[in-house]
């Protein structure tokens, strides 16, 4: 009886042990080390720059862009703030105007190579930047269709095929985002 028990249980235990050993060896090999905190930048990729926050006066001369019919918010980008660094990160000042009239202005960035975004600071009382508490890079895809402007910026307005577009090309794409539509986000499209 004991021998039959071991013949049935032993193969199951071996299979379970090999599965757990295989799972323990799975690593995040898909991203190069330079994208992790403290990664080695000597492997050819540029290290992330830490530029100073732009002057508050840059938060003007807005270009509006289309996000979708799901939202009544209006979305803008400051023309003079749009830059692409040597680290291939696109930095900009964004403005979200809600249907209720609330205005949110932020210094943000999109890393086209990894489809990630980051907020550096928010404009407080229209006078000074308040640094963001969250320093992490997060995915541009949030699953929230009502406030998905980062995903829209990533998918053809600031990035193309995983690489940043030139600022001039991005500004043209932003301006064209309304061309095929008649109306505004507040009164609907026809």
Determine the CATH topology of the domain at 56-178.
Lipocalin
Query: What's the CATH architecture name of the domain at 56-178?
Result: Beta Barrel
Distance between termini? 79 Å
The gross shape turns out to be elongated
The proportion of residues forming helix, as a percent range, comes to: 10-25%
Largest β sheet strand count, sense and barrel closure: 8 strands, antiparallel
Low-confidence stretches: 22-44
Count every beta strand, where a strand is a DSSP E run of 2 or more residues.
12
The portion of residues forming beta strands comes to 25-35%
Question: What is the residue-mean pLDDT, rounded to a whole number?
Answer: 79
In sequence order, what are the helices and strands, one letter per element? HEEEEEEEEHEEHEE
Q: Helix count?
A: 3
Structural class: alpha+beta
Q: What's the level 1 CATH class of the domain at 56-178?
A: Mainly Beta
Radius of gyration: 23 Å
How is this structure best described in words?
This protein has 190 residues and is α+β, with helices and mostly antiparallel strands. It has a domain at 56-178: Lipocalin (Beta Barrel), CATH 2.40.128. Helices cover 22% and strands 27% of the residues. The strands form three sheets. Strands 1, 2, 3, 4, 5, 6, 7 and 8 form an eight-stranded antiparallel β-sheet that branches. The chain is elongated. The relative contact order is 0.14.
Secondary structure topology:
Blueprint: H1 2-24, E1 62-65, E2 74-78, E3 83-84, E4 89-97, E5 103-111, E6 116-124, E7 128-131, E8 138-139, H2 149-157, E9 159-160, E10 163-164, H3 167-176, E11 183-184, E12 188-189
Antiparallel strand pairs: 1-2, 2-4, 3-4, 4-5, 5-6, 6-7, 6-8, 9-10, 11-12
